[in-house]
Amino acid sequence: MADESYRFVVVSNRLPVDRVVDDSGEASWRQSPGGLVTALEPVMRASGGAWVGWVGQPDLEIEPFDENGIRIIPVPLSDSDLELYYEGFSNDTLWPLYHDVIAQPGYHRVWWERYAVVNRRFAEAAAAVSEPGATVWVQDYQLQLVPAMLRELRPDLLIGFFNHIPFPAYGIFSQLPWRTQIIEGLLGADVVGFQRVADAGNFSRAVRRLRGYPTRTPYIEVPGMGDQPARRVIAKAFPISIDVAGFEELAARPEVQERARQIRHDLGDPATVMLGVDRLDYTKGITHRLKAYGELLAEGRLSVEDVTLVQIATPSRERVESYRQLRDEIELTVGRINGDYGTISHQAISYLHHGFPREEMAAMYLAADVLLVTALRDGMNLVAKEYVAARADEDGVLILSEFTGASDELRAALLINPHDIDGVKDAIVRAIEMPRHDRRKRMRSLRKRVAENDVSHWSNSFLTTLRESRGTQTPFGGGAPFDEGEWTIERAPRP
User: Fold this and answer.
1) pTM score above 0.70
2) Contact indicator for 185, 146 with CB cutoff of 8 Å
3) Which of residues 445 and 61 earns the better pLDDT score?
4) Buried-most residue among 51, 292, 333, 370 (CB within 10 A)?
C-alpha cells in the first residue's frame, strides 16, 4: 500500500487538470473543462480526496501531486495504449455501440486485450492509494472492468460506478463479443449508477440474460464465488447536473452581459440568434440540425436578415477517421448553406470549430434566443442545463431532443425527434414565434427543475445510496442507519 492513503478516491480516464507548457517550456496545471470535472470538483474539495487518472499526454510519467486541494494520482498511458484502449475499444467499439450503433462499432481482440490491461492498471493505482474501508467512485465506460478488479484486489472497499453515457438495450449490447466480461466487471461495484431509468433497466436485463442473477428493481443479487460472499448490487438512475449557482453567478456578471450584447452586435443584431453547442461527434445530430435550418431558408420560412445560427463544434477525437469525415461533412454543409443564402452583411451560419472558456459560453447563452439540442443519443446533455441556468431573465427557448437524458427532466422544453426533419423545422419556427409570456412560463419551469436537481443533489444522492448499500447486504433486505452528514456536499447559495 502507498505511503499516503485516502478515504475517498475518484477514478476516471482523465484527470481533472490539464498540463500546459508555456513558451519558455515551463509546465503548469489548470482545471479541465467538461461536465465530469465540474460535477465532482465540489465533492473532492470537501472530502480532501484523491483522483486517479491519465494526465492527457502519452508516455508521460509524473509523480503524484496536490492541485487545488485534490491529490492527483497520474496513471501513465503509452501511445499504443491510446490507440488500442482509448481510440480503439473505448471510442470505436463501446461509444458507437452504447449510442445505439449510430456508427458501426469495430470489434477487435487486440483492442479488448489492451482495454483489460489498462483497466487493471487503473484498478491497481486506486487500490494502492485507498485506505482500509475507503469509498472509491469509478467513472464511465472506459473503466467498466475496474470495479470487479478493485473488489478482487481490495474486498474491503466500498465501490461505486457511474456510467455517463447511455447503456443500450440488450439486443444491441449483446452484439459485443465481451458482453459477459463487461457485466461482471460492473457487478464488482456496490452501486452502478446511470443517467436514465431506462439505462438502469437495460443493465438489469442484460444481467438476467447473461448471468441469470435474480433482480428486483433496483437490486441485483450476486451469488458468492470463491472467498467472496453473496452481495446485493444496486443499479439505478442518478441524472447528473451542473453547478447551477456557479453558472448563475457567472451569467450575472456585468462583463458577461456586456459580452452577450457585443456578440449580438457582431452578428449584425438579427431578430433571432439560434445556438448549437456540441462536441464534434456523430451522436450530436449536427447534420440533422443544419439540414432543417437549410430547408427553412430554402422554403422562405426564415431569412438570413432575421435569423442567424451560431454553431460551436468543439474538436473531438480527431485521430479517429469517422470524426475526421464528420468534420469534413459539416464544414461542406455550412459552406453550401452560407454560399446559397448568405449576403454581404448577413451570414446564415457562424461556424466555430474550437472550444471557449466558461465566461464566453455564458455570454453565448445570454445572446441566444433559441438553443438547439438535436442529439441522436446522449446520456444527459449538460449544455441544455447550462443554458437554462444562465437565463435568469426567464427568456429564451430550449429545443431538446427526446433522446437525451435531459429530456426526462426538462419537459417544458420543446421536445423533438431529431430524425423527423419536418418536426425539427416546425419546432424552430415555433420557438422563434413564441410569445414572451409562453417563453417565460416555460423557462421558469425549466429553471425550477434545474435548480432542484443540481450537481450537489446528484453527488449527494449517489454517495448516500453508496454508503447505505454497505448496511443492506441481505437479499432484498432493509437498510442500516446512515449518517447523511458524512458525504453531504453543501450547496452554494444561489445569487
Assistant:
1) yes
2) yes
3) 445
4) 51
